[in-house]
Design a protein that fits this description.
The chain contains 16 helices and 14 strands. It has 465 residues and is an alpha/beta fold. About 6% of the residues have low confidence. The structure holds S-adenosyl-L-homocysteine.
Length: 465
């Protein structure tokens, strides 16, 4: 069982400090199921690779305390050499300090996001390459997977269930280790030991920074906890409430229904979409993202305008995307149109390589659905990682709410809104984002403007200089 971790961060041999293992020698550890060795196949200042090799003793594995519930088939099965939950045990025991985010020699290193490539040989992907990608891509990895032959001596036997997998991303080493700790056993979908409440604690600890907003969080929790429904429920209930909670069915069918009836006479939704399309056209964008596209109101307008040659709608709600696909008749569009549009399932709070390099992105009535820490994650994922040349953001103007008939003081326009900002609050946020990520900023009102309270919707247009 082999895991290698490589970096090209200069000096790359700093990886030794991060892992607390001197690159100059080999380190061996006795674990309850065999031995672990750490060594460096390559240790140069331009490139450094650390290897964690597990030498699993199947007899020890079955005899040891890990053997609960094991039967004789363990002697002959694949456990000794495939990457599995044993890898997680080894990571926590051998790289415990790195996993906890400490780095004695160079403390500042532990917080640095550096280019890292993890390579796992013989990773069982139960759920196939699709699941592998669904697990790692939302976390910002680019994933390469090669299926291994069942037996290299007999290629005619075909492919086996194992993959050699490479995961590349720029992140903190501790994050990489946390992701592997949780997701390797999830892919293997099998555990070598009894799963009890302690596993819920481990999952929540190692998933703390990323699990709540992961689009596959339910599958991850279920598989990690061996499909034990009581434990799964307990873990899911303890995950921070995510903004991604899917809207209700009735809200999904028509987003305008999610607005207060009072908003309707203004046809505010139309005015908003007109304003956004106007900005996207004016900046000359051809390849555009609609982030938080819901059921596709904006997508439909973009599709009807030939200027937009590549249109990508992204939403965290599968349900909303299904409705969007149906409403846009994606299954029966002529190929010239169908080829221009794509719907992607994803969370905007995660870096996602699929979203990089576009001319423009619209984020219409989405930010107010996010708790502040998630909003900060969205800012980085959009303005730093995806980095479209133009970003158009709209959000309600709270000051205007008093003018809506039937709204109580302090009431928000939608029950899933985490906040609604005054004009000052929105300007402060937008200014900070523009400065931090190097965008020019312009603000504009949308809808009828009241002398005291402003317009019902506010828009920010960010542009790279
Ligand atoms: N832009 C649309 C929908 C706004 S409703 C319109 O103006 O009509 C907000 C949408 O954002 C919902 O569809 C919700 O599923 C989506 N959303 C919320 N949090 C998200 C996240 N983290 N990633 C992606 N989409 C998200």
């Amino acid at each position: 069982m082999l895991l290698t971790i490589s970096t090209t961060y200069a000096p790359a041999t700093d990886l030794g400090f991060l892992l607390h293992k001197n690159p100059a020698r080999m380190h061996s550890f006795d674990l309850s199921f065999g031995k672990a060795h750490v060594f460096y196949p390559r240790a140069e200042s331009s490139h450094c690779t650390a290897a964690l090799l597990l030498d699993v003793d199947p007899v020890q594995l079955v005899r040891g305390k890990h053997g609960v519930g094991f039967t004789l088939d363990q002697y002959v099965n694949d456990r000794p050499y495939v990457a599995s939950s044993l890898m997680s045990v080894a990571i926590s025991q051998v790289f415990g300090t790195a996993l906890s985010g400490r780095c004695k020699g160079k403390p500042e290193l532990a917080e640095l996001r550096i280019p890292l490539v993890a390579r796992l040989a013989a990773l069982p992907c139960r759920g196939g390459e699709a699941l592998l990608r669904q697990l790692f891509e939302p976390l910002g990895y680019s994933v390469t997977a090669t299926r291994e032959p069942l037996d290299p001596r007999f290629p005619e036997w075909g492919e086996g269930p194992y993959y050699t997998v490479e995961l590349a991303a720029t992140l903190r080493l501790r994050d990489l280790l946390d992701h592997l700790y949780v997701l390797v056993p999830v892919l293997d979908d099998d555990k070598h030991y009894y799963i009890g409440e302690a596993e819920v604690e481990k999952l929540l600890k190692h998933g703390e920074a990323w699990l709540a907003g992961h689009p596959q969080r339910e599958a991850i929790v279920r598989r990690y906890l061996g499909y034990r429904s009581a434990l799964t429920r307990q873990a899911l209930a303890r995950l921070p409430q995510d903004e991604a909670a899917a809207p209700d069915e009735d809200e999904i069918e028509d987003k305008t229904a999610a607005e207060l009836p009072a908003e309707k006479p203004l046809r505010l939704n139309d005015q908003r979409l007109d304003a956004v399309v106007g900005e996207l056209k004016a900046c000359g964008a051809g390849r555009v993202l609609d982030l938080g596209c819901s059921t596709g109101n904006l997508l439909r307008r973009l599709l009807d305008d030939g200027q937009f040659t590549e249109i990508v709608g992204v939403d965290v709600s599968h349900q909303a995307l299904d409705v969007a696909a149906r409403r846009l008749h994606l299954d029966r569009l002529p190929p010239t149109k169908a080829n221009r549009i794509k719907l992607l399932h994803g969370s905007l709070t995660y870096r996602d390589r699929r979203l990089a390099g576009y001319d423009a992105a619209a984020i219409v009535e989405v930010i107010e659905h996010l708790d502040p820490p998630r909003l900060a994650a969205l800012e980085r994922a959009v303005f730093e990682a995806a980095r479209p040349k133009t970003v158009v953001v709209t959000t309600p103007n709270r000051e205007y709410n008093t003018l809506f008939a039937g709204m109580q003081p302090g009431q928000l326009r939608h029950r899933d809104h985490r906040f609604e900002w005054t004009r000052d609050e929105f300007r402060n946020w937008a200014t900070r984002v523009a400065e931090r990520f190097g965008y020019q900023l312009r603000l504009a009102p949308i809808g009828p403007e009241d002398a005291t309270h402003g317009a019902p919707t506010q828009m920010a247009v960010f542009q790279l200089g």
